[in-house]
Amino acid sequence: MRGSRFLLAGLVAGANSTVAQSPLYTEVTDTYLPAGIAGRCMDAAAGDADGDGDLDIALALEFEPNILLLNDGRGRFENRSDQIPREVHDSEDVEFADLDGDGDLDLFLVSEDDETNELYLNDGSGRFIDASHRIPVTDVSNGHAILDIDNDGDMDLLIGNQGPNRLLINDGEAGFTDRSAELWPNDSPTQDLEVVDIDDDGDLDVIVANEAQNRLFLNDDGMLIDATAARLPAREDETREIRAADVDGDGDPDLLVANVSFVTPWSRQDRLLINSGDGFFADAGSDALPADNRDHFTIQAADLDSDGDLDVITPHSVVRGGAGDYRVLLNDGRGNFSESAAGSVIPATADGNGFDVEVADFDGDGDDDLFFCNRSSVANPGAGVASGGQPRLLLRN
C-alpha cells in the first residue's frame, strides 16, 4: 500500500456519539458513485486531478483497467476513465503527486505479477499521458511512497518489492535515476511503505511492512539506515499495511499493523506498536486491539466519532469466493480500543473486501468522509458486486 500521512489525534473533544440512534455515516454509493465500477480494487487515491478545487479518486485494479472518478464538488462522481491510459496491469498501489513540477497532480502506480510501474503525467486538465518509460526499474512491486528524500524540492519515489526495494531520485521534471544501491541497500518481501518522521529530526523516515520482520529505516541526509534491531520489536508477521497515527494522544507517531495469514502460517491478529516518545517502539500486546483472527489487508485511523482521538477502521477481506465486512474500533483517548456497536458508526450495508480506506472531505462540507476500495473475490467483472468488489462512499452526517 501507499505511504500515508502521520495522523495526529484531534485537539478538540466532542460528545461521544456512539449512542446515536442512526449511524454517524450515511452510505450514498448508489446515488453518488457511477454504476459499473465494481471489480478487483487494490488501492485508491484522492486528489484534485482536474484542478477544479475538489477531490477526485483514482482506483488501481488488479488485471482490470484502472478507474478515474471526477467529483462535481458535492461528492457526486463521474467515471472519466477515458482520461487515463487503459492498459491492463496487476496494479497494486496508486498515488497522486506533482512529479514533473508543473503544478498539477500526476499519477504513479506499481504492479506486482506483471512487474510494470506506471507513470501518468497530467496535462493540466485532468487528462493523463503515459510516461512510464521514465521509470528505470521493473520489479515485483506491491507498494510505494512519494517524498522529497534528498530535500531538493522535488518528489522522489520509494518502491516496495519482493526483493530489493528501490529508491528513485527525481531530476525535478519526472526523470528518475535508481540510486538504491548507494542510498538504500536492502532486501525484503515488502507489501507496504509508510513514511513518517520517527526520530523528530525534520525529515521523513521509512517503515517497511513485510511478510516477515517489519523494518525501520532512518533518513540520514537522503541515505536510509536500517534501525530495525534497536527500534522495532522482533516479530514475524505477514503484514500488508502499517499506518502511522498518534493513537495515545502524546504527540508522537504510533504504528498500527494490519496482518493476514495468506501465504504464511503466522497470526492474523493486528498489532499496535507504541512510541516511547523518542522513536523506539514496544508492542502493546495482544489485548491492545480486540481479538480478530481474520485477514486484514488494510487499516486506517480517523476520528470517526468526533471525540478528539483517533479511532480505527479495519475490514475483514475475503480473497476467495466471498464478501467481507468492516469493523470500527473506538479509542478511549489513551490508545485503548473497543469495538463499536453494530451500525452505530457506519451502516451495515457498507461491506466488501476492503483493501484501502480513503479519508477525505469529498462533499466539501468541512468534515471527513470515507471511501472504501473493495476487491472482488472472483475474476469475473460481472460478479464484482456480489463478490465484495463494490466500492462504497460514506458521507459524514
Give structural notes.
Strand 20 and strand 21 form a beta hairpin. The two termini are 29 Å apart. The strands form five sheets. Strands 10, 11, 12, 13, 14, 15, 16, 17, 18, 19, 20 and 21 form a twelve-stranded antiparallel beta sheet that branches. This protein is mainly β and 397 residues long. The protein has three helices and 28 strands.
What is the topological layout?
Blueprint (H helix, E strand, L loop, with lengths): L24 E3 L1 H4 L8 E7 L8 E6 L5 E5 L5 E3 L11 E7 L8 E6 L6 E5 L5 E3 L10 E7 L8 E8 L2 E5 L5 E3 L1 H4 L4 E9 L8 E9 L1 E6 L2 E4 L1 H4 L4 E10 L8 E7 L10 E5 L5 E3 L16 E3 L8 E6 L8 E7 L5 E3 L14 E7 L8 E6 L17 E5 L1
Antiparallel strand pairs: 1-28, 2-3, 3-4, 4-5, 6-7, 7-8, 8-9, 10-11, 11-12, 11-14, 12-13, 14-15, 15-16, 15-18, 16-17, 18-19, 19-20, 20-21, 22-23, 23-24, 24-25, 26-27, 27-28
Short description:
The chain is mainly beta. It has helices at 29-32, 180-183, 228-231, and strands at 25-27, 41-47, 56-61, 67-71, 77-79, 91-97, 106-111, 118-122, 128-130, 141-147, 156-163, 166-170, 176-178, 188-196, 205-213, 215-220, 223-226, 236-245, 254-260, 271-275, 281-283, 300-302, 311-316, 325-331, 337-339, 354-360, 369-374, 392-396. The strands form 5 sheets. Strands 10, 11, 12, 13, 14, 15, 16, 17, 18, 19, 20 and 21 form a 12-stranded antiparallel beta sheet that branches.
